[in-house]
């Protein structure tokens, strides 16, 4: 148990479920062309340190990466040889930090046994001391020591381009430094984009361009023709039609596995040979058009199914992080005038995915084995972000309203543990699985839609803010989720923290003091400044307010930030200096007249 806890402390990421999930979805026989490539053979033989494998969106890079990992484990794993993998994911940027990624490599390469290896004793002592997390330098040093226990380590990094820019910069430089060890051999897949190439690749780096091999696409289509029940019944006795489907889907897929999948999904929905042939004649040849065609099929399902699909797409498009299946189910089950979630309003996950016509998938998370729901591909997310204002114009207000209603429930669950984890095994957590998301992000969603919230929703928000029990519980959970220290705050500090200008006005109109201090003496203005909320509707910045009020400590805090313009003008044309001068705040005037601060 201690070893498992130590592993979880190193990193919550193992990528085992991700690897298994992708490999099980791959079609037997696909990817053989890559495994037989001379450059891949040279890399596995240890003759090259890095293997660069770029490819366009949708060609099957991640599936191929999972096939490579399985091949390495099956044919190369032996005493003294290690295999590790990283699957970068645009949806998990918040969780896939540099320390989590390096920590994951470390836990994957920990030698089997029931005790912590000697090479990790210093890190283990940090863990026993109950430090919140390990330092990057300590993790890197420990990983370097761990690599010395192996004669060869294969590392497969998939979708490097999906890392956030800052994480990718650190990750690449760390891997480069670790690769000075003779044993480490790294294979990387990514889109062939300059930001990745410039950081990592030079002219001498061995390269295999990933493409959707025509033979692989044929194999995939034939597999789907055998496994899709309705499609099989339509074509099983017509070999010529089967061959026609294989040829035309391959042609229209234009080297993209994703397009081939969407095309077969479309054909599999047809109920007659005539409908099938018509669909085959009109298959789109590019991904955006294919998504449009899928949306036409979704609208044709019926009003209830179409509405449900749109709600799923809306939440996945505008959510601030990846959502679990249970979170989406509860978000959609919150009906108007509902005081609590009715279990009978929960929609089964198979129905949720089926109405979305293949555009969303359920995946297993590597940590605690929770199931998450996500778009089938990042291009689908981009499609809905681009079309969002048309498909769901009220999305931001709708999500904010759901969050506020959830906050207003009377029977709140709050974890009593020493720390908050993501384990949904607790009965209480299952009762309100959306609570952690709402506690962490309600303020962001309200800020995105504050002006468009209806009067009843604003009243509900004010009712929540004036309920000290609910506010205390939600903020306690918020602090735990964001690793913040204990702090007693009041509604006005919370509103300032999230930059809710309209709500701030409502609070001030009820007599709340703008100078209220939290338990550490910070005012709402400081909370707004620390969280980067730069301007009010009148164009006034926190610096403008602080200067006008003569708050020299706040002014000093703000002037230390690189993103603060000391000479900014509000809509009335006033600068912070003019505000300070008008009110006779000499100390603040001196602060603002420092060289290079104002023109």
UniProtKB/TrEMBL annotation:
Gene3D superfamilies: Ankyrin repeat-containing domain, P-loop containing nucleotide triphosphate hydrolases. Keywords: ANK repeat, Repeat. PROSITE patterns: ANK_REP_REGION, ANK_REPEAT. ANK repeats lie at residues 538-561, 572-599. This is NACHT domain-containing protein. Residues 301-387 form the GPI inositol-deacylase winged helix domain. Transmembrane segments: none annotated. The keyword Repeat applies. Residues 29-191 form the Nephrocystin 3-like N-terminal domain. SMART domains: ANK. The lineage of its organism: Eukaryota, Fungi, Dikarya, Basidiomycota, Agaricomycotina. InterPro entries: Ankyrin_rpt, Ankyrin_rpt-contain_sf, GPIID_WHD, NPHP3-like_N, P-loop_NTPase.
């Amino acid at each position: 148990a201690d070893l498992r806890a130590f592993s979880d402390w190193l990193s919550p990421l193992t990528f085992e479920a991700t690897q298994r999930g992708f490999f099980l979805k791959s079609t037997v026989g696909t990817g053989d062309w890559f495994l037989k490539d001379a450059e891949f053979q040279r890399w596995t033989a240890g003759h090259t340190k890095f293997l660069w494998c770029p490819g366009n969106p949708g060609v099957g890079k991640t599936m191929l990466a999972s096939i490579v990992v399985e091949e390495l484990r099956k044919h190369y794993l032996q005493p003294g040889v290690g295999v590790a993998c990283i699957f970068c994911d645009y949806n998990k940027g918040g969780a896939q930090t540099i320390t989590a990624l390096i920590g994951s490599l470390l836990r994957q390469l920990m030698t089997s046994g029931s005790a912590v290896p000697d090479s990790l004793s210093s890190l283990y002592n940090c863990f026993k001391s109950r430090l919140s997390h390990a330092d990057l330098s300590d993790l890197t040093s420990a990983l370097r020591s761990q690599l010395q226990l192996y004669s060869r380590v294969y590392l497969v990094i998939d979708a490097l381009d999906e890392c956030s820019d800052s994480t990718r910069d650190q990750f690449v430089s760390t891997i480069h430094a670790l690769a000075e060890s003779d044993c480490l051999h790294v294979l990387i897949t990514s889109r062939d984009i300059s930001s990745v190439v410039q950081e990592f690749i030079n002219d001498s780096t061995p390269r295999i361009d990933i493409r959707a091999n025509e033979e692989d696409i044929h194999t995939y289509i034939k597999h789907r023709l055998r496994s899709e029940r309705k499609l099989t019944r339509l074509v099983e006795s017509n070999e010529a039609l089967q061959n026609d489907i294989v040829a035309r889907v391959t042609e229209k897929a234009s080297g993209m596995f994703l397009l081939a999948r969407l095309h077969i999904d479309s054909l599999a929905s047809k109920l007659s040979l005539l409908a099938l042939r018509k669909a085959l004649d009109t298959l789109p040849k590019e991904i955006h058009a294919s998504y449009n065609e899928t949306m036409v099929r979704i609208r044709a399902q019926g009003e209830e199914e179409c509405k449900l699909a749109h709600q799923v797409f809306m939440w996945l498009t505008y959510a601030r992080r990846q959502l679990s299946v249970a979170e989406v189910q509860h978000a959609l089950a919150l009906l108007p005038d509902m005081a609590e979630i009715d279990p009978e309003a929960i929609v089964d996950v198979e129905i949720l995915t089926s109405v979305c016509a293949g555009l969303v998938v359920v995946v297993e998370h590597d940590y605690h084995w929770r199931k998450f729901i996500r778009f089938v591909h990042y291009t689908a997310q981009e499609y809905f972000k681009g079309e969002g204002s048309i498909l769901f114009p009220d999305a931001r207000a709708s999500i904010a309203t759901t969050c506020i209603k959830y906050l207003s429930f009377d029977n709140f669950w709050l974890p009593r543990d020493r720390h908050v984890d993501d384990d949904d095994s607790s009965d209480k957590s299952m009762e309100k699985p959306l609570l952690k998301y709402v506690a962490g992000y309600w303020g962001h969603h309200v800020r995105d839609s504050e002006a468009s919230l209806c009067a009843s929703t604003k009243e509900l928000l004010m009712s929540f803010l004036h309920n000290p029990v609910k506010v205390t519980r939600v903020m306690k959970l918020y602090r735990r989720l964001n690793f913040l220290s204990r702090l007693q705050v009041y509604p006005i500090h919370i509103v300032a923290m999230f930059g809710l200008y309209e709500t701030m006005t409502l609070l001030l109109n009820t007599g709340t003091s703008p100078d209220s201090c939290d338990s550490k003496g910070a005012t709402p203005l400081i909370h707004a400044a620390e969280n980067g909320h730069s301007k009010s509707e009148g164009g006034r910045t926190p610096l403008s307010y602080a200067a006008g009020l003569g708050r020299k400590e706040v002014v000093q805090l703000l002037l230390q930030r690189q993103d603060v313009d000391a000479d900014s003008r509000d809509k009335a044309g006033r600068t912070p200096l003019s505000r300070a001068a008008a009110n006779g705040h000499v100390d603040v005037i001196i602060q603002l007249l420092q060289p290079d601060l104002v023109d």
